[in-house]
Known about the structure:
Elements: H1 2-6, H2 10-13, H3 19-58, H4 71-101, H5 119-125
Amino acid sequence: MVHQTLGKTPSELRFLHEGTDLVMAVLVTSAARHLDDVHRQFTDAAQQAATALTSVVDGTKSINSLGVLQYSAIQVDILAARRADAVDRLKEAIAVYRQVTADKPTAPSSPRATPAPSTTARRTRR
């Protein structure tokens, strides 16, 4: 979603900015990672539920008195809601990122310069 909207991956955003813009880039990256994690949990739970249902339909698993999905159905519903919330949070983070970085040139994507050692440190070593 980030790459489609901004034309950059979340990781690339961190190397384009400094200061407040960098904070916003990190926020977008964090929101994207959270969405990826919740989406993975959701798809895993949905796959497990689908496997359980397929086994019942194929006749390789019997239906017990507690039902087929039991907790799995609730887990899938909760994860679907969490995923939808994570999508909304990422969209909000991207919108704020765009506002904060609007009309500002991005820093070059070259590595950041390493600060020179302080002169005080040299004096204390002598």
